[in-house]
Amino acid sequence: MSLSEEHIAQFDRRFDGTLNDQERIDFDEKLKADKAFEERYDQYIQSSNFIKTWAIGEEMKDIINAKNKKKKRPKNWLLYAAAIALVLGSTFVLLNQSNSLSNEELFGKYYEPYPADNNLRGISDENQAMLLYKNKKYSEATSAFTQLTELNPENEKYRLFLGICYLQQDLITQSINQFKLISGSTSNTIKNNSDWYLALAYFKAGQSSKAKEVLIEIKNSNHLFSNKAEVMLQELDR
Q: Is-contact 50 95, C-beta < 8 A?
């Protein structure tokens, strides 16, 4: 599936956050509704990463060539050729491996479970669920918060804790679904945290392009995690 100049120009603006609010909304809606459009955007992200990685290999090759001009040609030129091939070949290894490693490192660096409520009094279902969560019994807490969300679907706090429970058990798809359900919350606390954990969950799932989209939205809004999102995006661009 080829990328047109129009696609690239639009994707460039979405990736660097220069779309206006309405353009960004229209872009995100099309990304969700149009599978071919989403595939083109993923292709654009992968191509951008490849170009950056290839450039590193070319720069290293130039350095080797420049140094070699000052020296006599190595007696074993096959070893020299192999060294250059190794440098260039490593760019492709980096392309295939760096995202996975980077995702795990970033997740581990920035992730902390949402803090449990400390004012636990009585023996209510909510307090029992929160106590299980606080004691890191995430499997049991998952069952408890699932029941609470079924009985109280309007209580978005339960979904936030349920999403964290799934994330702690590496049930990433379920976690993402919970955070997406409350990403449009009118509660700033719920929305800010659901956005942040959604980005981290995408990294955990290896979906770095989607994670970056969420981080860019966080960075460009009046958000509790805007500073962290900006730092995280800078780390991704290194």
A: yes
